[in-house]
Design goal:
With about 230 residues, this protein is mainly β. Helices cover about 15% and strands about 40% of the residues. The chain contains one helix and 16 strands. It is globular, with a radius of gyration of 22 Å.
Length: about 230
């Protein structure tokens, strides 16, 4: 490369290089913001609603935001509540339950249909391996007895014999995979995204035993504000 071209390349690179300290500082600030973010007080618990049916449903847990759940988003975010103290759950704008959960717990409430009681599922963690992600599988398909979640293409089972209306969880290495589930008829292959260590991912088996569907989403918790 001749001298003029080298100088031109240098002039092009200088503005880019000048941005690197700023980008690094922004990344560090983001980590520090997470580290020092306001955290829920001791004794808090975490509750969300799952809607496995075909229609959309608006829900609210305690003082959390109103969320629209259904085929596009099966589960809401976990609302922060005070463990051991009663809180309200609104479904479709109407109070549906006044519940208590134990401090430190994670709970999913399944809203099967209007007028039916909410069903509680304990979402307690499967372990504390910080180098792995956690996957939790919910069997919420109608008329579906013990269900299995396997790698697609007759692969090995991640979960076997998960009872109707129940869930199971396990830590997994953060890798991509294609999954299938069912209790007879099987779902189409579902692409598990590339998870990161510490992620919590929910997989929902819905539909029916004859026509099951498999969906998934990352679990998240409402931010805590003092």
């Amino acid at each position: 490369m001749n001298a003029p071209r080298r100088f031109a390349a240098a002039r092009t690179l200088l503005p880019i290089l000048a941005l690197w300290p700023g980008l690094a500082a922004q990344a560090q600030e983001g980590k520090l913001a997470q580290l020092y973010a306001a955290r829920p007080p001791a004794g808090s618990a975490f509750v969300r609603v799952i809607q496995p049916g075909p229609g959309a449903l608006k829900v609210r847990v305690a003082d959390g935001p109103e969320q629209s759940l259904g085929p596009a988003q099966r589960a809401g975010s976990y609302a922060i509540v005070e463990g051991g103290r009663a809180f309200a759950v609104d479904v479709a704008g109407q109070p549906r339950a006044l519940l208590k959960v134990r401090p430190g717990s994670f709970t999913s409430l399944v809203a099967d249909a209007p007028g039916r009681p909410l069903r509680a599922i304990d979402d307690s963690g499967s372990g504390g391996d910080a180098l792995k992600a956690e996957v939790r599988f919910y069997n919420l398909a109608t008329g579906c007895g013990p269900a299995a979640l396997t790698l697609a293409g007759n692969g090995p089972a991640l979960f076997a014999d998960v009872a109707a209306g129940a869930s199971a969880a396990r830590p997994v290495n953060p890798v991509k995979a294609a999954l299938s589930a069912g209790c007879g008829a099987r779902t189409a292959a579902f692409a598990l995204p590339a998870l990161q260590p510490g992620d919590h991912y929910s997989l929902f088996l819905t539909g029916s035993a004859q026509a099951p569907q498999l969906q998934g989403q990352l679990s998240r918790t409402d931010p805590y504000t003092r």
